[in-house]
């Protein structure tokens, strides 16, 4: 993968891409074999269900708004300036239950297949297909609580 010097301006996206994934707008800012970073607009009432990245560490830096992160039975709240750390292999779900939108910067290391996953999920609304495609890209969603 080509990783070159330069700047991705605030209003631009890496390779001109942007995706709608689970109701969030993801705009890639940096992508290499080592790391993938994207800006996210997370509307109120949206979420990423509990899942695991077995091959990546993930983090979120909150710019505006508030998010709730569930690590299994643990609930953590994050606001502007907070950094959320989600180590590989740890179940986590990301929720905006704040009553307002949130913006943040996400990152994963190493990049692995996540950039390609977001390309495949862009605009997808079928939950079963989302789970199937995600598993092919090293992201494993947990079954809904009533299915466990």
TrEMBL record:
Gene3D superfamilies referenced in this protein's UniProt entry, alphabetically: Jelly Rolls
The organism's place on the tree of life at top rank: Bacteria
What residues does the Cupin type-1 domain cover? 5-132
The identity of this protein, by name, is Cupin domain-containing protein
Taxonomic path: Bacteria, Pseudomonadati, Pseudomonadota, Alphaproteobacteria, Rhodobacterales
